[in-house]
Amino acid sequence: MNRQIMTGSLLCLIASMSWGAMFPVSHIALQQVNPLYFSFLRYFSVTLILIVLLWLKEGRAAFRFEGKGKTLLFFGTMGFTIYNMAVFQGQHAMGAAGTIVASIMEVLMPMISIAMIWVMTRKMPPKYTLISMMIALAGAILVITNGKWAFFTLAGQHLLPLLLIFAGVIGWVVYSMGGSHFAGWSTLRYSTLTCLLGTLVSFVVVATASAFNWVAVPDWQHVWSVKYEMSFMILLPGLAALLSWNAGIRMLSPLNGILFINFVPITTLVLMYFQGYTISRFELYGTLLVIFALLLNNMVQRSSLRPSDSPRRMRFRLDRRKSFQR
């Protein structure tokens, strides 16, 4: 079990750091390509790669929906249409400040997921998870705001973009929980079919928007001008992060795995540092808080499954955790 937790933690960390890097990169690309088309073109490419991988690994039978088509469509739409289009649209609308704001909004995911599970199960999550989540949230906010309340004043001037980003964040939380409905499926299969259906919905969105002249179809020169940024977005935050995240979430459970999303704004800040940004003491303390919160959550989780525990006590803890995670 300890090995599974460590592997799942590493996978979620890889995904979160990849997503942290995508906001500075996408800010460049969005200057040339509309956010809606940028989201569609990105996952259209990811979908093609996933289809080839699934076909080679599991064969034609893996593409059957098995009566779960509507469920796959729902989670695919939430993860690959709502999340991507709403977040990038909101980020682009806020201009330069959108890079940081979109990044920090990601840290709301653990709070949203806990609230959703709490409502669905009517059972309170483990206290150590609540404490870890709050510490990580405080650390991430301290990093991004740099200890200055003026950040929230700035955010208040962009209500609509913030609502779009928030809607996208909820979409990804829902998608992250969707994997539990497909326990008998491989990570690759769930990722491929949801990405395929979500991308089809995204195509309907951009086609409709262009048909009514709400959004202009980008010309090939503009798309080609961001080929490097698009390649990065497809291979790392798109393909690698998606597979790592779904596999990690399955190993840790949505409640524990989604805590790693706090590394998204941390990674964004690190990239800014390499671009010449000077890290302050507030940002350093915030980074340490996030790391401490993740270590605390995993250490307590592992200790709850120690072999020294009596079988009765261990069974009680496992049953309590499973009943909450359902």
From TrEMBL:
Ranges for domain EamA: 7-144, 162-298
Annotated signal peptide: none
Protein name: Transporter
One GO CC term, this protein: plasma membrane
InterPro entries per the UniProt record, alphabetical: Diverse_Substrate_Transporter, EamA_dom
Keywords assigned: Cell membrane, Membrane, Transmembrane, Transmembrane helix
Main localisation: membrane
Lineage: Bacteria, Bacillati, Bacillota, Bacilli, Bacillales
